[in-house]
Each structure stands twice: as C-alpha cells, then as structure tokens.
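Project standup — Tuesday

K.O.: blocked on the structure for the chain from last sprint. Re-posting the sequence here as requested.
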Amino acid sequence: MKIKNIIILLFFITGLNTAFANDGWYNILNEGGNNKGIKCTEAIQNAIEKASKNGGGTIFFPAGEYLTGALKLRSNITIYLDSGALLKFSENFDDYLPYVEMRYEGIVMQTFSPLFYAKDAENITIKGRGVIDGQGKAWWNEVYRIETAKGPIPETKYQTMWVEQNKGIVYESYYKRTIDKHFFRPSFFQTYNCKNILIEGVTFQNSPFWTINPEFCDNVTVTGITIFNPYSPNTDGINPSSCKNVHISDCHISVGDDCITIKSGRDADGRKYGKACENVTITNCTMLSGHGGVVIGSEMSGGIKKVTISNCVFDGTDRGIRIKSARGRGGVVEDIRVDNIVMKNIKEEAFVLDLFYDKDNAVEPVTERTPIFRNIHMSNITGGNVNKAGVIRGISEMPIQNISFSDINIDGKEGFSVITASDVEFHDVKVNATVGSSFKISDSKNLILDNSGSSTPIKGTPVIKLDNVSNVMINNNFPFNATDIFIEADGKETKNIFVKNNVFNNVSTVVKKGASLDKKAIVE
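H.V.: unblocked you, prediction finished:
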C-alpha cells in the first residue's frame, strides 16, 4: 500500500513539474542565460524559439544585467523585464547580421537587423519595469566618422554588403547624400507587417537610431514607457509608419530628434506601398528634449489621416506640433485634431505646417508627387517662452487648406506667419509677441480672425499684417490695452477685407493702408 502511494505521489509530482515546465513562463536564467553581463544572445533566442514552438510564452528576465545581439521575435511572445533587470545590446555590428528587410527613413531596404525585430508576426509584447539599453554610441560614432571624413575613405565590409544587397534601390536626388553613406543604423524596435503589438512600462535608452518604429502594422499600443536618448543623430522616440490603429499614451520622452513622429514612406518608394498611417491617438505624454514634440512627416508619401493628439506637455523641445513635407513626396495629411496641450520653452515654432521642408524647388503640375495638408484643427493650447508662435507655408499649386486655431494663448518672441493657405481660421487666439506683428498673412484667401489679437501690442507695429490676401473677416475684437495700429493691409491682390463687430476704443489707427492697396479693399 505504501509503495502504491509513493508511486501515485511520484506521478503527481512529475505531473506538476510538467505542468509548471509548460506554463508558458521561461526564466532566462533557466534557459542558459546569465545576469552577469556576459553575452547570451543564443540562449535568449533559443528561449524565444522554444516558446514559439509551444504556442507562445513569456521570456522572463529577473533582476541583473544581460547582454545580447539582435533578437528575432515570434508570434505570441512576451519579453518581460522585472524591476532591476538591465538588458544591454551589443556594440559589435556583427551581432546585427545577416541583413534583413526593414524600412529606414521611409525606404524599404536590406540592412542591419533592428535590435528587436519581427516580420509577419502577431501578438508581440515587451513589458515590465526594467531598462533596455541600445548602447547606441558606437553607431553614432560610426555615422560621425563617415560624415566628417575629408575626402574618400575605404568602405567597411558593412557598406560593401549594403551595396551588394540593395542594387536598384530608387530614391530622389536630394536623398543621395544619405544613400551614399551605405551605412544605415538599426532601429531599436521594428516590427514589420505585424499586428497586435504592446509595449508597456519599460525604459528604452541610447537607441542606435529610431527607438520604437513599427512599420506596416495593425493595432499597436505603446503605454507608460520612458525613452531617453541623449544628444545624438536621428534618435527619434516613437515612430509609427504606415500603421493603423495606433495608441500612444502616458509616455515620457527625451531624445536626440523628434519625440513622436507619424510617417508613411518616402517619395516613390512610399507611394509604391501606398499604405497610410491612420487611426492614431496620442495622449497624456510629456516630451522634453527633442526636435519636435509631435511631428507628422516628412516621410508621408503613403498618407496620414485620422490622428488625435491631446493632454500632452512639451517642455524644452525645439518645436511643438510640426507637420512637414515637400514637393515630390506626395501623400495627403488630413483629419488631424490637437487639443489640450501645454508648451513651454519652445526653441523655434510652437506650430509648423510647412510644405517647403528640406528643399525649395520649382512649381510642378499637381500629380501624385504633390503633397496635401488639409482639415487640421488645433484648440485649447497654452505656450510660454516660445520663439515663434507658428508658421503655415503652402506651395502655390497646393495651398494648405481648412486649418483652424481655437482658444490659443502664446507668449513669445514672434507671432504667426501664414503664407499660401486658404480657409484658415483663428478663434480666440492671443499671441503676445515682443517682435513684429502677432499675425502676418500673405498670398492667402478665405480667412477669419475672430477675437484674435495681442494683449501686449507693440508701438508702431500692427497686430495683424495683411499682404495680397482676399476674403477676410476680422470680427469680435476688443483690444483692452492701448494699441497703436491694429491692422496694416497692402498688396494689389488684397480685397474683400471685412472689419465688423469690433470695439476699437483703445486703438489709435484701426487700418493702416499701404500704397498698393485698392481703395475698396477694406469694408468697415
């Protein structure tokens, strides 16, 4: 009887061990890895493959230091870093070979594997309270070495490999300088044609290139993460490209380039795939150092649409909201909403909508190469210590159209400039500039300035300056403080300027008329 009980007990224990062994939880220390900082790429990758064969699972990193090369993620895999876990990526470029298909700055090519890489997979997660360090300095230094070389230098084996594996790659002439480097750093995290992606809680630092960069993905959630990259080249924070159903929330970002950027491919290569980035929500994030807080473009050739940005703080970024493109890119940016934002210490512009980004070329017929910005609306935004309130600059063959700013208060050096745009509205917008006019508008039409002006007008400087504009309504304004000149208008094309329902008791000169202005252009 006792022997029988022992046998039963042994079967029970064996069954329990088997159950626990197959519960989908793979402690990397039990899978051949170590937490002493000794490279264990093979052990980590083997654990991923083992979990994948069993239908998926969680690769668990307890506290300690780990070192690895590039990792290929599979479907139904979670990477979980416990508090105190530090996962470092190798500084040896060989650990990112062989080259894989990835997208670099909007062009699909064969190059180094991203640090975390997946293709054609689903249900991928990285989470926990640990830290993941890309040790990007080695990559940054190689870029600096190539860029600062005086005269031709011998190509490395990596550059030679790139040339051999990317024959026939198509690009515009302005991008030749970048292509001629033949060296393209890997993204920290790039999932390519995947779905159901979750990144939660962890800290990413020192990325070689862009940090979180899903490409052609569906249902991407990035929440509660921290990204820290010091001054470094092109180390953007979160860059969804040609993705749909993207949710970014509760993140803290300080990087060497743009904090969050929405993209969809570059020029002809982007239009070839023709996949927009759409259904994107960004909320409850803080952005510190970075070229832009939230940026759309400049790689937007597949189109970008249905984006909401809300409840964010930008403190110390070069720009706040920036939408940028140029002739030759093509693509449509539309249906964008920005609401409830606080900006402080913005080094350049609080708002930028610019179709002359990175090149100034000749007028073209409207074709698939023509970029379009339309239906973009900003509201409930406060900006302090801003260098310039904003720039809207369209191209003559495709003015920027249907733009509105509502409930905006900006304190800074310069005001808004609007050039080549139509259907632009300012409602309850106060721009307190210390240099120049609060609003300078030229070569535009169909404008409304409703209760929009300055609380700190400058003597001898108009609050609103118009040049070659038409169909303008300036209404519901009551400058509380003594104002020398409220409107200055000039230009032979200026017409149909309606100044209605205003109280100008504190204004010395309501309209200063330029020499070229038609006498009938202003209707008061």
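K.O.: great, moving the ticket to review. The longest helix spans residues 2-21. The mean pLDDT is 95.
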